[in-house]
Design goal:
Layout: H1 10-13, H2 26-42, H3 45-51, E1 58-60, E2 70-76, E3 82-95, E4 99-101, E5 121-122, E6 124-131, E7 136-143, H4 144-157, E8 179-180
Parallel strand pairs: 4-8
Antiparallel strand pairs: 1-2, 2-3, 3-6, 4-5, 6-7
Bound molecules: zinc ion.
Length: 181
Amino acid sequence: MELFKIVTDKNELKKRCQEVEMPLDEETKTLLLKMIDYLKKSQDDEIAKKYDIRPGVGLAANQIGINKRFLAVYIIDDKGNEIKYGLVNPVITAYSVQESYISNGEGCLSVKEDVPGYVYRHAKITVRAYDVIEDKIITIKAKGFLSIVLQHEIDHLNGLLYTDRINKDNPFIEKEDAIAL
Ligand SMILES: [Zn+2]
């Protein structure tokens, strides 16, 4: 497996990533597949321990030092299904007004110490992107955890970290209509 060096420098992560030229070059395609594989293996306790890596469900290009708009996602859902994407130039084309948040807070491979607080995001989103797995432009209608992960990763491409979205004065501020995950 490819072991990526994860960028943790906040100044590097603040830069907005550039559009990827299409059609996609083979190099980026291969890299995205390796990023998905990295995430999958990072969720295996033994492999994570062996290589001293943290488990992750999403990885944006700038987290491995490439300032371009692509990202990988690897999630096993409640039913044990594998959800994986290698998205290029993702755009959120629609979103719900209703918000959701993870009650245990978010984490990030690029933020070593967990920063406590709620991160409110759109409960449902629609994302349009080229996907390397399907090898075409796809539309994803996401809710629940997947919606959160996609927004977290797209934030990275825009130079934003989850910690930027936590209310500084009241990290655990309650929003009545928001869905707790
Ligand atoms: Zn992150």
